Amino acid sequence: MRYFIIPVFFIFFSESFGQVVTENVINVKADIIFADGFDNLYVLSENSFIKYNSKGKEIFSFYPEAGDKITNADVRNSLKVILFFEDQNKIIVLDNKLSKISNEIYLDKFNIFGDAVICGSTIGGYWIYDNINSRLLKLNVDFILEYKKDLNISEEIISISDNSENVFLQKSSREFISYDFNAGVTEDMQIYKASERYSFINDEIVFYSGNVHGLTFFNWKKSEYRYIKLPKDISITNAVLGKSKVFFFNKYKVYISKIREE
Known about the structure:
With 262 residues, this protein is an all-beta fold. It has no helices and 25 strands. Strands 1, 2, 19, 20, 21, 22, 23, 24 and 25 form a 9-stranded mixed beta sheet that branches. The chain has a 4-stranded antiparallel beta sheet with strand order 3-4-5-6, with no helix packed on it. The chain is globular, with a radius of gyration of 18 Å.
């Protein structure tokens, strides 16, 4: 599922710079996990959305209405957690206690009729990529359309993220495009086969790689890899990075681990 393709320029590999020590285990069947910048863990499990603190204690939960199915979330802003319901073509926003702070926002209001991906904006508001029309939209904090751009990307976009200058779009091939929304310029990024669950931290993209059984940190500006090793004796479905914790899970358990530098 995850392969690294060696391109025609040089890529430099560093040694592992750390490993993890497991601090707690949560007996929950997770479909997807997320982590915020305060080392809070969020688990999507059988359509329930549960928040745990850094010690693994369940602190809040959210259960959608009957017939609604949560398909994705953005927890980077813990005060405005975004839940996406692909089948219903809508989003809702929760506060840090997982209470609703917005009405349901239906995307057909913006002429988006399915096959979209969404993330919060680090400068406020929300980014939406409409795959059907290959169009990027920006909503402000009041869900008013303030930006729209046709990007003419032929490949399906499966996820998006951003920083203060760029929107990062991951294609179905797992490769990335960056879009400078101030200059209106798109550029292919030399990132290869990253997991769909990733985070951008400064000049690095962080994602789980089964090939190295660990979290991979790839600096796309320097073309350098480094990684954190995860326990070899544990089967891992995926892993995410918090502020100082690494969270990973398999079929029946979620593990909370602390990074130990080597």
